[in-house]
Specification:
Arc Repressor Mutant, subunit A, mainly alpha, 4 helices, 98 residues
Length: 98
Amino acid sequence: MGARPKRFDKQFKLDAVRMIQESERPIAEIARELGVHPNVLYRWRNQLLADSDHAFPGKGKLKPEDEELRRLRRELDVVKEERDILKKALAVFSRRTH
């Protein structure tokens, strides 16, 4: 079995990105010091630059727009299920009257 990936909290990621931005040292050196792959630091930096307010939402937490999308998909699934039940009921009642 492969090793499980390490989990880092939001503050660690913010501190790591701050180190990249404030340091003259190469990212590879900072990555070695922190025990992460340089690509991980690049990804964290890009996430923070792309959406600083919602970067690193945490385990099980979503950005507000992603949470809304998840809620709407669940609601759509319920509506589809209700529609299918009504279709079946209509088919049953239609057969009884003929």
